[in-house]
Design brief:
Blueprint: H1 2-40, H2 45-48, H3 56-60, H4 65-74, H5 77-95, H6 104-133, H7 138-167, H8 169-189, H9 224-233, H10 236-251, H11 256-285, H12 287-300, H13 304-310, H14 316-344, H15 350-379, H16 381-404
């Protein structure tokens, strides 16, 4: 029985990794690659802000999280994962015929549609992860989430830019569709990951949903407002900086391929930071204190772009190393925050609770990404980066106060 449980757990980890990697692909396309390609295609810095529209499905998916989770209860996680994956593959193929250089608005619309499908799939993945991985395995599950999603963003962002440099938009996006298919095949053929366990990782019985899942049931959390405040603030400044970073790299003299390589470096550093720093912080300090420690490091390094702009640094080695260090701290922060929310979510509506927190984060990301393009155009890079850094400092103070009032499953 122990060997079977170990094999089942391993298959669940693999399934999570495949799902989150596939969902990261369109995120990398919209949030990393598209801004570079829009600017490289001759469009303005303010039009780069259109990429913020792709955040909206991730911000608003809480509106349909309950029905999707109820659909999973009627059919299965595997069925809904399959339906959304096939639709995402089809949308990738259609999108490949609308390059951002000549079909900007159709391209942005296609990227938003693709992220809508993958955001819906993410509701299912969240429900699966929280239902199976609460308690002792939550840290490992969130490290897998961060690593796999970042891996998908790496392939869909920097990786796509490198392919685009050699073979163009159509080939690059069609290769992304092929990769989505390859990622789905092990899920289609696998059986172990579909099994419903009788108990959680902590040995407790798995709670079944009590009737229909409704969004208003979140009011059962007495600390809901504090949790939402943390979700809104923890990544907002980082998103503003990373969005403005795309046109800054091009204006700083880097080629599209070099900008893509930097994004790859940053995403790899995120994943490494999540595993090597985030998980040890959780084990050493517990959920809440780990969030505070990791956020202090990430906030301190949020001024990297401001410093590079102010010092007019032109050495690419320094630029790569500076952003890699910042990304290590951010990766640790991502793992600690999402472990906090995984243990905070109710086991009776895991997908909806966890998804609402993700949506709060994505909504603030959408606002930050849309606003920073105009601020960069009006204020210049140095002041815009400085403003984002100051916002990170304010967010740290507010989150520190909020963590004291957080109850739920967090420790």
């Amino acid at each position: 029985m122990a060997a079977q449980a170990m094999h089942d757990r391993r298959s669940q980890f693999v399934a999570l990794g495949l799902m989150y990697f596939a969902q990261g692909l369109p995120g990398g396309l919209a949030f990393n690659a598209l801004g570079v390609l829009i600017r490289d295609g001759g469009h303005s810095v303010s039009e780069v802000g259109l990429t913020g529209l792709a955040f909206l499905p991730w911000a608003l998916k809480f509106l349909w999280a309950g029905p999707i989770e109820n659909w999973c209860a009627r059919r299965s996680y595997a069925y809904v994962i399959g339906a959304t994956q096939w639709l995402a593959i089809a949308l990738c193929i259609v999108l490949s015929y609308f390059p951002p250089s000549t079909e900007l608005y159709w391209c942005v619309a296609g990227a938003v549609a693709l992220n809508l499908v993958c955001a819906t799939q993410d509701i299912v993945t969240n429900a699966y992860a929280v239902a199976r991985m609460r308690g002792r395995t939550a840290g490992a599950a969130n490290a897998i989430q961060v690593m796999a999603f970042i891996g998908g963003m790496l392939a869909g962002g920097g990786g796509l830019l490198v392919v685009h440099q050699h073979w163009g938009w159509t080939v690059a996006v069609q290769l992304m569709a092929a990769l989505m298919l390859l990622l789905y095949l092990p899920l289609l053929l696998g059986k172990r990951w579909r099994r419903v366990p009788s108990q959680t990782a902590d040995g407790q019985a798995v709670a079944a949903p009590a009737g229909r899942i409704r969004l208003r049931d979140l009011r059962e959390h007495r600390d809901l407002g504090w949790a939402i405040l943390i979700a809104i603030l923890f990544k907002c400044s980082g998103t503003a900086v990373s969005t403005l970073l795309s046109p800054w790299l091009i204006d700083h003299g880097l080629s599209v391929a070099q900008a893509g390589a930097l994004q790859v470096s940053n995403l790899v550093s995120n994943a490494v930071g999540g595993v090597l720093i985030g998980i040890p912080l959780i084990r050493q300090f517990g959920d809440r204190r780990a969030v505070l420690v990791s956020m202090c490091g990430a906030t301190l390094l949020m001024g990297t772009a401001w410093w590079l702009q102010l010092a007019q640094v032109s050495d690419n080695r320094v630029i790569f190393a500076a952003f890699a260090l910042q990304s290590l701290a951010e990766g640790a922060m991502f793992v600690t925050v999402w472990t906090l929310f995984m243990n905070w979510a109710s086991p009776r509506r895991p997908g909806t609770d966890y998804t609402v927190m993700q949506c709060c984060e994505s909504l603030s990301n959408a606002i930050a990404a849309a606003a920073i393009g105009g601020l960069g155009q009006a204020l210049g890079y140095s002041r815009a980066f400085g403003l984002a850094w100051a916002g990170a400092g304010v967010a740290l103070v507010v989150i520190a106060l909020s963590l004291r009032r957080l109850n739920g499953a967090a420790r």
